[in-house]
Amino acid sequence: MRYVEEFQDPAAARRLLEDIRAAVTRPWALMEVCGGQTHSIIRHGIDQLLPEEVELIHGPGCPVCVTPLEVIDKALEIASRPGVVFCSFGDMLRVPGTGRDLFRVRGEGGDVRVVYSPLDALRIARRNPDREVVFFGIGFETTAPPNAMAVLQAHRLGVRNFSMLVSHVRVPPAIEAVMRSPSCRVQAFLAAGHVCSVMGVAEYPPLAERYRVPVVVTGFEPLDILEGVRRAVRQLERGEHTVDNAYARAVRPEGNPAARAVLADVFEVVDRAWRGIGTIPDSGWRLSERYRAYDAEARFAVEGIATREPAECRSGEVLQGLIKPHECEAFGTACTPRTPLGATMVSSEGACAAYHLYRRLGGPAARSAAPSPAAPPPGTPSPVTPSVEASPVV
User: Fold this and answer.
1) Whole-angstrom Cα distance, residue 11 to residue 281?
2) What is the Cα gyration radius of the chain?
3) Is there a contact between 236 and 189 (Cβ–Cβ < 8 Å)?
4) Residues 6+ apart with CB under 8 A from 329
């Protein structure tokens, strides 16, 4: 049995940092794909502890953040309808749509409920056969299997008053979109370990070969991320570009065959719009023809909603790794967790939320102010888990 503490060991972190410093001879830019990894990096000060030649770029790996504005507005429209119980995970309630959010809809009398599983929404539907119950199904390949199982279960039980507003997205096409951008600076990727635990790694070797970038499958604890960086830097320095599984304790090459089979049955691959980025071919899922009766978008006839992002919000540039959150003029002023302009400020995995929560400015000043891994300041839990007070203060 392995425990989390093993992957937060200060001595092991120092050794990994020393290995990275010894290996690096020139600047390299690495993108962590997952928003959970971004929060771990900022929380533990990993980007500050790395040698200045290694830059970590935050990618479009927050499922709440990339849910397009038009889908949020569709959710608001459905949730406002009489006779509807709209169920969602809690992190979607404050995501701004056009002029309001799900909290506002609930305040105006809409029956908006926070659930902890799509099966909770299915149970609500079975207990309330006279109400239309809608579950907001968003996320990457990690949340897609349980959402698919809820639809499958509704189909098996014959529950007709249950439907799902689907906005699922897929990671590999997003990586390809990043690499095809004319402004791309990414030279290696830290792939999300939980996504690969479901889908396996078969989609990544063609990307690594086509764009000549290392892809390292990485976990979420400090040592996981540092090991991923170490392996990526070593590949870059050697001129290699392969897929390397640094998270073998959770990821098998084939992923989870049972989960993949359910996904192939319930969903079909489609082009999908990403908030702040645009439409990426083959980057999403929708319900397959067999289960189309459970598609809330069709059931409530909200397909035609069109929207426009607020001009002052630069979350799209943050999601593409073109700027850091603090480089947005609205960060911390017009845009805060209480008054968000975009989802990256309110999501639990959003980069802007991470910078705001841990009071981080980033850049050279923040790096120079970072605690040394060999001599952490008094009161710091470990070299890779500096307290909020030890981090640079806005």
Assistant:
1) 44
2) 21
3) no
4) 312, 314
Beta bridge partners of 29: 55
CB atoms within 10 A of CB 300: 17
List, in sequence order, every residue forming a beta bridge with 58; answer none if it has no partner: 32
The average pLDDT across 155-171 equals 97
In this predicted model, what pLDDT tens digit does every residue of 6-24 receive, in sequence order?
787 889 999 999 999 999 9
Query: Does residue 105 contact residue 136 with C-beta atoms inside 8 Å?
Result: no
pLDDT, tens only, 305-332: 767 767 788 888 888 888 899 999 999 8
Percent of the chain with pLDDT over 70: 89
Q: What is the Cα–Cα distance from 291 to 289, expressed in whole angstroms?
A: 5
Buried b (16+ CB within 10 A) or exposed e, 191-222: bbbbbbbbbbbebbeebbeebebbbbbbbbbb
Number of H helices, E strands in the chain: 17, 11
Tokens of 376: 């952490």
Nearest Cα neighbor of 354 from 40, 8, 92, 89 is 40
- What pTM was computed for the model? 0.85
Question: In angstroms, rounded to a whole number, what is the distance separating the alpha carbons of residues 335 and 313?
Answer: 8
Length of the chain: 394
